[in-house]
Write a structure and sequence with these properties.
This protein is mainly beta. It has strands at residues 2-4, 9-14, 17-23, 30-32, 42-49, 52-60, 67-72, 76-78, 84-92, 105-111, 114-120, 134-136, 141-148, 154-161, 168-175.
Length: 181
């Protein structure tokens, strides 16, 4: 197990059991635990800087893909035909854990005064056009960019669908100039 941190040291936990605390040497950029054997569960690392707890990270083993979850970078945008909301679609298992190997084809639709500007997945090998309203997930993730229609404030509902997965939805409010925040 490799841990990359700008902290001075870190402690690794597998299902709550410490695998040891290690300090970085001069010019080292990572810490290694060579005896950790893979098993499904939860890995957590606690990083320390100057002896004080500084940062934590956790990874859980995912089950089979079961649903789609949509997260908005902004739930309210201007109805000016220019303002955008970036919506991340995540393929999750039954417990809501990201399914990192999922590559399901996700289709996006819009209801209300908005439009899909682009989709992407971050897959550097994909030749799918950004203007497509459907795209294969990459590492369990996909992105749809939504724009409000000029002069048409209201509610925009974004829906994501993929075969065999629970549907994901999110709502974006588009507001006129006088209503803005």
């Amino acid at each position: 197990m490799h841990v990359f941190t700008s902290g001075d040291e870190a402690e690794l936990f597998l299902d709550g059991e410490s695998q040891g605390r290690k300090k970085k040497g001069s010019y080292e950029y990572r810490l290694r635990w060579d005896d950790v054997v893979y098993r499904p569960g939860t890995l957590e690392v606690v990083a320390y800087k100057d002896g004080e707890r500084w940062a934590t990270a956790q990874v859980k083993t995912a089950g089979q893909p079961a649903g789609l979850k949509l997260d908005l970078d902004r739930a309210e945008i201007r109805a000016d035909g220019l303002d955008l909301s970036f919506v991340t679609a995540t393929v999750t298992d039954e417990a809501g854990v990201t399914a990192p190997r999922a590559d399901d084809r996700i289709s996006f639709t819009i209801e209300g005064p908005g439009e899909i500007v682009a989709t992407d997945s971050g897959d550097p090998t994909s030749f799918e056009p950004f203007q497509s309203h459907d795209r294969k997930a990459f590492n369990g993730l996909c992105l749809v960019i939504v724009r409000g229609k000029a002069g048409q404030p209201g509610t925009v509902t974004v829906t994501a669908r993929a075969d065999g997965l629970r549907v994901g939805t999110a709502t974006i409010r588009t507001v006129g100039a006088r209503e803005t925040r």
